[in-house]
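Sequence, please.
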């Protein structure tokens, strides 16, 4: 069931099952490896670098 809730000042929509499990696993792997900067407010959060156009394209290897 889709749901919309507030995340910071921005509404966020959670839509389970929208992406395939293989794509989700590969995205988690990709971004976990790049989460290098600690969050100032919480040890449970980290930051990745901002996406750049050349790195933002979805690789065909990620598509499920």
């Amino acid at each position: 069931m889709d749901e919309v809730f507030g995340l910071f000042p921005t509404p966020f929509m959670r839509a389970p099952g929208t992406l395939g499990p293989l794509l989700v696993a590969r995205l988690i792997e990709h971004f976990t490896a790049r989460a290098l900067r600690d969050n100032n407010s919480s040890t449970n959060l980290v930051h990745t670098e901002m996406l750049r156009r050349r790195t933002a394209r979805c690789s065909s290897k990620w598509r499920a």
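The chain has a mean pLDDT of 78.
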